[in-house]
C-alpha cells in the first residue's frame, strides 16, 4: 500500500510537471517574441518579486506542516488544527506582503512605472496562499495539486494567445498569469472539502505563534536559498537594463523548466522519507540511496545535453532576438545537476536527520556572498555576470553540503543503506 501510494504521488507529480513544462512551452516562446526582450524582462522582474513574496508567505510551512501531517495522518483533529493554524499564519503574512508592495510602489521611484504590473504580483501571492500543497503532501493526495494547477494553467493558454499581441499588452499577460494561481487555489479548496481531511477547529494566538517559531529555521534557510536562486533576476532588473534582464530571464526559464521537474518530485519524496524514518533509519537510507544514485546520473546527463544543444534550443524556443542567450544557457546548464542534488543533500538528508542548524547556516552564508558578488557582476556584465555568479554559488553550496554529510557519517550510511545517528 505504501509503495502503491508513493507510485501514485510520483505519477501525479510527473503529470503535473509535464503539464507545467508543456503548457509554458506553448506560451513562453510566444510571449518572449511578442513582448520583446525589454518587456519580457519586466515580466520576469515582477514575477521574481512575486516569488519572493510567496516564499515569505510559505514561511517554511511546506516542510514543517507537511512533516507534522505526514507523521499524524490518522489523527483528523490534529491535522485540522495544523491546517487552520497554517492557513491563519499564511493569511497574516499575506497582509504584510500586500502592505509591503504598496509601500514599495509609493516610495521606490523605479517601481512607479510598473506599479500596475507589480500589483498583479499580489494577486499571484494571494492565490498561492489558497493552495495548501503542504496538506496534500502530508496526506499523500497529490493528485489534487496536479488537477488544480494544470486546470488553471491550461485555462491561461488560450487567453494569452487571444489577448496578448504586442509589447503594449504586457499588463494583460501579467494579469492572466497571476490569475492562474487564484484559480488553482479555488479548485484546491474544493478538493480539501472533497477529501474531508479536515474539520473546523478553533485555534489560539498561541498556536499561530508556535507555528511561526517552529517554521523560523526553515524560513531563514528558504529565504537565504532564494537570495541566490531568484535574486539574480531582481538584481538585474535594478542595476542592469531590461534587455539584459530579459536575456537572463529567458535563459533561466529554460534551465528552470528542467530543474523544477526534480524539485516538484520532492513533494512526494520528502514526506516519504519522514514516514520511513519513523519506521526504520535503514529503510530511509536505502530509499535515499536509490533516489540519489538514480537522480544524480539522470541530471548529470541532462546538464550535458542542455550545454551541447543550447544553440538549437535558443533558436527554436526564443528566436533571433535572443541570440545572445546561448552562452548564458550553457553557463546555467550544470545547475540542473547541482541544484537537484543539493536538494537531496539538504531536504532529504540534513533536515530529516535533525541537522537544522547546518541546513540554515550554509544557504544563509552563501546568500550574503552571492549578493555581494552579484551586484558588481550584474552591473558590469549583465546577464552573463548574473549567470556566472549563480553557477559559482551553487557549486560552492554543493561541495559544502557534500563535505558536511561525509564528515557527519550521513553520506556513507545512506550509500550503504545503514542506520545513522541523529544529531
From TrEMBL:
Q: Which domain of life is it from?
A: Bacteria
Using the UniProt record, give the first listed, main subcellular location.
Answer: membrane
Keyword flag Transmembrane: yes
Q: Where in the cell is it found?
A: Cell membrane
Name the keywords, alphabetized.
Answer: Cell membrane, Membrane, Transmembrane, Transmembrane helix
GO cellular component, as recorded: plasma membrane
Indicate how the chain sits in the lipid bilayer.
Multi-pass membrane protein
User: Pfam families this protein is in?
Assistant: Polysacc_synt
Q: What is this protein called?
A: Flippase
Which organism was this protein described from?
Kushneria phosphatilytica
Amino acid at each position: 500500500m505504501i509503495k502503491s501510494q508513493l507510485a501514485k504521488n510520483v505519477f501525479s507529480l510527473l503529470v503535473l510537471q509535464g503539464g507545467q513544462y508543456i503548457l509554458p512551452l506553448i506560451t513562453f516562446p510566444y510571449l518572449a517574441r511578442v513582448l520583446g526582450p525589454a518587456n519580457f524582462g519586466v515580466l520576469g522582474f515582477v514575477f521574481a518579486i512575486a516569488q519572493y513574496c510567496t516564499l515569505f508567505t510559505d514561511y517554511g510551512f511546506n516542510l514543517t506542516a507537511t512533516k507534522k501531517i505526514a507523521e499524524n495522518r490518522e489523527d483528523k483533529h490534529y491535522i485540522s488544527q495544523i491546517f487552520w493554524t497554517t492557513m491563519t499564519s499564511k493569511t497574516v503574512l499575506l497582509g504584510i506582503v500586500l502592505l509591503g508592495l504598496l509601500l514599495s510602489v509609493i516610495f521606490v521611484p523605479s517601481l512607479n512605472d510598473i506599479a500596475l504590473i507589480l500589483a498583479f504580483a499580489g494577486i499571484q501571492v494571494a492565490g498561492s496562499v489558497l493552495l495548501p500543497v503542504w496538506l496534500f503532501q502530508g496526506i499523500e493526495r497529490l493528485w489534487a495539486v496536479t488537477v488544480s494547477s494544470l486546470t488553471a494553467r491550461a485555462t491561461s493558454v488560450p487567453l494569452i494567445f487571444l489577448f496578448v499581441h504586442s509589447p503594449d499588452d504586457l499588463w494583460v499577460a501579467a494579469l492572466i498569469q497571476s490569475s492562474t494561481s487564484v484559480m488553482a487555489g479555488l479548485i484546491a479548496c474544493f478538493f480539501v472539502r472533497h477529501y474531508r481531511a479536515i474539520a473546523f477547529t478553533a485555534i489560539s494566538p498561541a498556536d499561530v505563534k508556535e507555528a511561526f517559531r517552529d517554521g523560523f529555521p526553515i524560513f531563514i534557510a528558504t529565504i537565504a536559498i532564494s537570495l541566490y536562486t531568484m535574486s539574480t533576476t531582481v538584481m538585474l532588473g535594478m542595476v542592469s537594463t531590461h534587455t539584459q534582464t530579459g536575456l537572463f530571464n529567458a535563459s533561466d526559464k529554460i534551465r528552470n523548466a528542467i530543474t523544477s521537474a526534480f524539485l516538484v518530485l520532492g513533494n512526494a519524496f520528502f514526506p516519504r522519507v519522514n514516514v520511513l524514518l519513523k519506521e526504520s533509519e535503514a529503510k530511509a537510507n536505502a530509499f535515499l540511496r536509490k533516489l540519489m544514485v538514480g537522480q544524480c546520473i539522470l541530471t548529470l546527463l541532462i546538464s550535458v545535453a542542455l550545454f551541447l544543444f543550447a544553440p538549437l534550443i535558443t533558436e527554436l524556443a526564443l528566436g533571433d532576438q535572443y541570440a545572445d542567450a546561448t552562452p548564458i544557457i550553457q553557463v546555467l546548464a550544470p545547475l540542473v545537476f547541482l541544484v537537484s542534488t543539493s536538494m537531496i543533500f539538504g531536504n532529504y538528508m540534513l533536515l530529516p536527520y535533525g541537522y537544522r542548524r547546518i541546513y540554515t547556516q550554509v544557504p544563509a552564508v552563501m546568500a550574503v556572498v552571492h549578493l555581494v558578488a552579484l551586484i558588481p557582476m550584474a552591473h558590469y556584465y549583465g546577464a552573463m555576470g548574473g549567470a556566472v555568479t549563480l553557477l559559482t554559488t551553487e557549486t560552492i553550496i554543493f561541495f559544502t553540503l557534500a563535505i558536511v554529510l561525509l564528515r557527519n557519517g550521513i553520506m556513507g550510511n545512506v550509500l550503504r543503506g545503514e542506520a545513522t545517528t541523529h544529531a
